[in-house]
Design a protein that fits this description.
150 residues; 7-stranded antiparallel sheet; Alpha-D-Glucose-1,6-Bisphosphate, Chain A, domain 4; alpha+beta
Length: 150
């Protein structure tokens, strides 16, 4: 059974900027600490990555996984499902970008994770919390620094 977590963070940038940063997969190694390599395997007619392979650091080792992206609710949301992974059975998620009245964005990140190897609940919870918190903090830093520079 997959464990699920959802977290929210406010970004001082418009939703379009948040969306653009999330879709710039090849640049993830520049700003996502645990991502070591990204390759966009397939793109849709708009040039967005529909199948993306990642190599990341996880729990003291390297892991590889491929995600299939869904843009049916874009640019309001971007979703993905795990296509294949070496230590994950499920790694499905969604970013939702809700505009704020002052030009910022409320970003919600939902993630469902199931590992191939069973782990004690407290270790899984700690890992999921770290994944989501780091993802949102790193996205916020990237989006806001890029917004300030433009």
């Amino acid at each position: 059974m997959a464990d699920q977590a959802t977290e929210y963070m406010r970004m001082e940038a418009p939703p379009e900027r948040c969306y653009d940063v999330v879709l710039d997969f090849e640049r993830y190694p520049e700003w996502v600490a645990d991502i070591k390599h990204v390759e966009v395997i397939e793109r849709d007619d708009e040039g967005r990555g529909t199948k993306v392979a990642f190599r990341a650091a996880a729990m003291g080792r390297s892991t590889s996984y491929t995600l299939a992206y869904d843009y049916s609710d874009a640019p309001h949301a971007v979703s993905w499902v795990l296509e294949k992974g070496d230590i994950t059975r499920r790694l499905d998620g969604t970013y939702i970008f809700d505009p704020a009245d002052d030009g910022g964005t409320a970003v919600t990140y939902h993630l469902a994770v199931e590992l191939v190897v069973p782990l004690p609940g407290f270790i899984k919870s700690r890992a999921e919390g770290r994944i989501i918190s780091n993802a949102l903090r790193e996205l916020k830093a990237r989006v806001e620094s890029a917004s300030a520079a433009s």
